[in-house]
Specification:
three-stranded antiparallel sheet
């Protein structure tokens, strides 16, 4: 499995390097040259925000000292040549709150993350018509730092880097509905779900049975004793990226996956929306929303049993801070 992961990342790196190579050629002087040699379109967004509150020991209104920090990094590069285009899309988001309450005169530390997302998409598409392309791509979704169950006083670890992680490879068709909206359908998609942390598995495992009816445990769909779940299915994506005005941009991505092998499951959904308002040259206001529907994480039985109030997981945030576009 480690060899499989290494090969996949080697493919991503090699693909990016291959398409980034510049052949020896004269300066591009016209559209004919551009179509012959290709050209890059690149964009990078970098943002950071900081917040904090402090209260005197005699403060009677309630509150707790705290520090908050968040960061966003987006990089998208498209290499176009003739009828083909290679796209590399990297999105990183990380934010946390560090509460500093005083207990019996001693400052305690309570670190909690409020957003954590690692997303990368590499894709090659070739034009069939003005609006229709075929494509082949690889997609990765995970997180950076450890997550804890704060409802449990023991603070068990329930997530970490590559626990879980979702890697998918697919080929299919994409339709450019408008300059801002792209719809794609992965007619043949393979997905691997990783749980590489044994502690995460133990703290999130749920009882189940194998295909042979034998009792076992699962975490994020991965069976006990294994590190990876391999599935085949269909994937659909809707991606929206538009500058609503000169200083306001919205990026939205909805991704769904229907697994039909090794067993048929309910459709998984992952929604991410980022709204960025540029207040001046260096100050940005960022609003983000993440929604996840995955029965391997929260089942209907969890809701019916009162453990959770919804099978949807949602996370939202509002940040004001420093931001630049390169």
């Amino acid at each position: 499995m480690k060899k499989f992961t290494l090969l996949t990342f080697s493919f991503l790196l090699a693909s990016t390097i291959l398409w980034a190579q510049k052949p020896e050629k004269p300066l591009l002087k016209n559209m004919e040259d551009s179509l012959k040699y290709g050209w890059w379109t690149k964009g990078t967004q970098l943002g950071a925000n900081f917040s904090g509150s402090a209260f005197s020991q005699s403060w009677q209104g309630g509150g707790v000292n705290n520090i908050g920090l968040g960061a966003v990094f987006n990089n998208k590069a498209v290499f176009t040549k003739a009828k083909g285009a290679f796209t590399s899309d990297l999105q990183l988001q990380l934010g946390f709150l560090n509460n500093l309450p005083k207990v019996n005169g001693v400052t305690q530390r309570e670190f909690r993350k409020n957003i954590d997302r690692l997303f990368y998409d590499a894709k090659y598409a070739r034009k069939i018509s003005d609006r229709l392309n075929w494509f082949a791509g690889v997609n990765l979704l995970s997180q950076f730092i450890t997550g804890y169950d704060y409802a449990n006083t023991k603070r068990p670890v329930i997530s970490s880097l590559f626990a879980p992680a979702f890697l998918s490879e697919g080929i299919g068709l994409e339709y450019k509905a408008s300059p801002y909206l792209m719809l794609s359908f992965g007619g043949a998609t393979l997905r691997q779900t990783f749980v590489m942390n044994d502690e995460v598995f133990e703290n999130t495992k749920k009882a189940g049975t194998t295909k042979d009816g034998k009792p076992t445990f699962y975490s994020y769909g991965v069976e006990q004793g294994k590190k990876m779940l391999f599935e085949a299915g269909f994937q659909g994506v809707a991606a929206y990226d538009r500058n609503i005005s000169k200083n306001l941009n919205i990026k939205a991505r909805w991704q769904s996956f229907y697994a039909y092998a090794p067993i048929s499951k309910a459709v998984d959904h992952n929604v991410n929306v980022i709204l960025t308002a540029k207040l001046n040259k260096y100050i940005n206001l960022n609003m983000g929303l993440i929604g996840i529907f995955d029965r391997d994480q929260i089942s209907k039985a969890d809701v019916d049993g009162g453990k959770f109030n919804s099978t949807w997981q949602t996370n939202g945030g509002l940040n004001l801070g420093f931001g630049i576009q390169l």
